[in-house]
Amino acid sequence: MSMGTKGGEHAVVLGGSIGGLLAARVLADAYDRVTVIDRDDLTGAGMGLRPAISWAHHIHALLERGRTIIEDLFPGFLDDLLALGVPVGDFGMTCHYYFNGRMMVPAETGMACVAANRPVLENRIRTRVAALPGVTLRERTDILGLVASSDRRRITGVRVQGRDPDDGGAPGAEEAIDADLVVDATGRATRTPRWLGELGYERAPEERIRMDLTYTTMDFTGPLPFDPLGDDIALVPTATPALPRGAIFARLADRYALTLTGILGDRAPTDREGFLAYAASLPVPQIHEAVRDAEQRGPAHSFRFPASVRFHYERLSRFPAGYLVLGDAACIFNPVYAQGMTVAAMGATVLAKHVGKGAEPRSADYFRDLSRVIDAPWAMSAAADLGYPAVRGRRTVATRMANLYMPRVQAAAAHDPVVARGFIRTASLVDPPQSLMRPSMVGRVLFGRKPAAPAAPAAPAAPAAPRVPAPSSEEPR
Fold it and tell me: What is the pTM of this model?
């Protein structure tokens, strides 16, 4: 490994989305130069949509664990969003979950709910990264493959081909970029399994949860004729096996957005009449009432997500030196649970640990630690999806136990603020899933006092000002 003034001379990041940008941020502390390669026009995109991120139309959520990591990497990040008019509130008071038609009781958490859409979040991170000394964004460039040493034990660079925007995007000459470290952050489009196979390496074992999810999102212009949110941020009727259609209705900086979800082939139409009819089937009637007569802002967009996929690189006995994988390129999560950006941020902290030692990171050690970070969110999302009998995937004893216990947690959260707060902390990846199994919590879930009669779903009350905490020191396990 060529040694520079920081411990490494040149690192290359494949992919300029959020995972790649966070990787570039931590690599800039350990390498003299960092090059981020992406096929899109990154800087020209501004806060608009990028062709490579077709799912950016849909509502995204930055969980508290991810927010605190990003805030640590980019101090003042939340203030940047507030200056753009992004709504921010206490998660337990302004983001209202419904399970089987019952709203989770409001509970102050001290954790932020950030209502920024994907392009805004990406733009603010990209702006910060591009300003770092030694960081270069290589845009409008196709990634063709890896460059390996003659014995194929080490990745020494990457083959790319730029496109000339002044010539209609015509491809230029192929070139090789040398690197001491290459990080694959290309997300769902990852070609690492194929590239490793071409180099004679075994394919990493995979887990797949096939739920055939579809997102359909329509935006609306405010003010709404009927506004059930007020100063709150979101109503989230969560899909369950009993009521498998879900939604996220959110107030963003410049619009209101409604994302409708369906699984196993069920999908909301993109025409207004069909979309509204689907919204009317939700167990929270305020959502349909809010958008029924609202002004539509542009066409609806639909996105299909066939399966969650986890690549177990930590199980491989051989892996080339000088190459690592991060974010969705390592584990593709069901987007319903909003874990992707946060797990990418957690992965960036793992990367920072392994490149910050002044020596070349060892892939086996890195993937072992990355796997530990992925374990908890994967277990939670996989168990939730496998609660639907028709969803295909491996069901373990732990999965079946979770599917018996979590509906009780959700029912208790409708009236017990302690359970509600615990659920939010776990779902936000601040606390590990085991926290919901502590004896005191189990007692509240199984034997706590129940309300006298079921409460009808109600519009949430206006919240108090949120408290935004310092990053939690407890890593999800």
Answer: 0.90
* Three-class HEC string of 293-322: CCEECCCCEEEEEEEEEEECHHHCCCCCEC
Task: Kindly state the tokens that stand for 346.
Answer: 């957690």
Judgement on whether residues 51 and 138 belong to the same structural domain of the protein: yes
* DSSP run (H or E) holding 381: helix 363-385
Compute the CA torsion angle 198, 199, 200, 205 (nearest 10 deg): -70
Q: How many angstroms from the chain centroid is the CA of residue 346?
A: 11
- The helix/strand count (H/E) of the chain reads as 14, 19
Residue found under tokens 């996989």:
382
Q: Give yes or no for a contact between 52 and 16, defined as CB atoms under 8 angstroms apart.
A: no
Q: What's the CA gap between 258 and 68, in Å, rounded?
A: 26
Same-domain status, 45 and 155: yes
In 10 A of CB 4, how many CB atoms?
Answer: 15
Closest C-alpha among 233, 153, 163, 225 to residue 196: 153
Contact indicator for 266, 244 with CB cutoff of 8 Å: yes
- 418 CA to centre of own chain: 26
286 in any annotated domain: yes
CA distances from 45 to 38, 124, 139, 157, 254 (A): 12, 12, 11, 27, 18
CA 131 to chain centre: 24
Judge contact between 324 and 366, C-beta under 8 A. Answer: yes
Tell me how many domains the chain contains: 3
Q: Considering only CA atoms, give the Rg of the chain.
A: 23
Render pLDDT for 377-391 as a digit per residue (tens, 0 to 9). Answer: 999 999 999 999 999
Instruction: For residue 382, count other CB atoms closer than 10 A to its CB.
Output: 26
CA distances from 37 to 98, 136, 140, 144, 244 (A): 41, 9, 8, 11, 39
Burial 245-254 (b: 16+ CB within 10 A, else e): bbbbbbbbee
Residues 187 and 231 in one domain: no
Tell me the pLDDT tens digit for each residue of 173-218.
Answer: 899 999 999 999 999 999 999 999 999 999 999 999 999 999 999 9
What's the mean pLDDT when you consider all of the chain? 90
Q: Which domain holds residue 399?
A: 395-447
Tokens 């996929």 identify what position? 309
